[in-house]
Amino acid sequence: MTKVLACIDASTYGASICDHAAWAALQLGADVELLHVLDRAPDAVPTDLSGSIGLGASESLLENLVKLDEDRGRLRMERGRVILAEAEKRVRAAGVKTVGTRLRHGGLVDNVHELEAEARVVVLGKRGEHADFAKLHLGGSVEQVIRATTLPVLVASRAFKPIQKILIAFDGGSSSRKAVDFLVSDPAFKSYECHLVHAGKPRDADLAWARARLADWGGLHQVAERPGEPEAVIEAYARENGIDLLVMGAYGHSPIRRFIVGSTTTAMIRIANLPVLLFR
Which alpha helices (DSSP H) does 116-241 contain, by range? Predict the structure, then answer.
């Protein structure tokens, strides 16, 4: 059964994640599975307290600290159930009939990896509940999930906006070709206006392939070539043409090259005021 796996937390992006997950599910004819992960609290008391408090600590103090940690754990579980219940209401209100919920412990990346066999798309927010919005950095787990999963990842923007125009950032690589194949494989996307843009100097064979795939698809589309750096070109094109969803390949260069010149993927997710659908 096809599912959209939506990773929910208590961040500002919570409502938007629900809305984007509902949109994706309705396009794909899929159910929604809501996932909330309880990772270990940063101030949790370690299981082994030997030597962690210092000489002279009383046994009663240690017991009180452990009890405090247990109480915090119960509160976090109750909070997680409330978050999932509210998210489920929102997704159902958007028109999705079948919505499941999962409250799990551990890391987000590990849990997504365990559940990805049941899903077609993963949805998560650009930043988590502890993010510093002033610094515009990504949430700590966002890049890790994108790199770890084999599924397309829809990174939700701050607020959901009805989607009418889709921009595919195309570089001819295998991941951007997957993005094109995903679009043309589902009849639901024919109701959208599709723009395919190549930044920099293209290879004729790559653009010929893209044009042929879009022509066979038959939906409303246009192909553009623009000189310049991908980040600047794509951001400007999206702004000028009122784009609602950016689709692109993720992390196409080697790890060493990414370290030296940075990542177009990370830069685009960070600066774009749009939801971004990524393919590996």
Answer: 142-148, 174-184, 204-217, 230-240
pLDDT category, 66, cuts 50, 70, 90? low
Strands 99-105 and 165-169: unpaired
Bridge-partner residues for 101, per DSSP? 34
* Cβ count within 10 A of residue 135: 8
If you ran DSSP here, which 8-state letter would residue 94 be given?
Answer: T
Q: Which residues pair with 225 in a beta bridge?
A: 198
Q: What is the pTM of this model?
A: 0.82
- 232-279 residue pLDDT tens: 898 899 999 999 999 988 765 444 334 333 466 677 777 668 899 999
Residue 119 contacts by C-beta under 8 Å, 6 or more apart in sequence? 2, 3, 4, 5, 33, 151
* Residues 136/22/82/275 CA torsion (nearest 10 deg): 0
Strand order in the sheet with 153-156: 99-105, 31-38, 3-7, 121-125, 153-156, 276-279, 245-249, 165-169, 193-199, 221-226
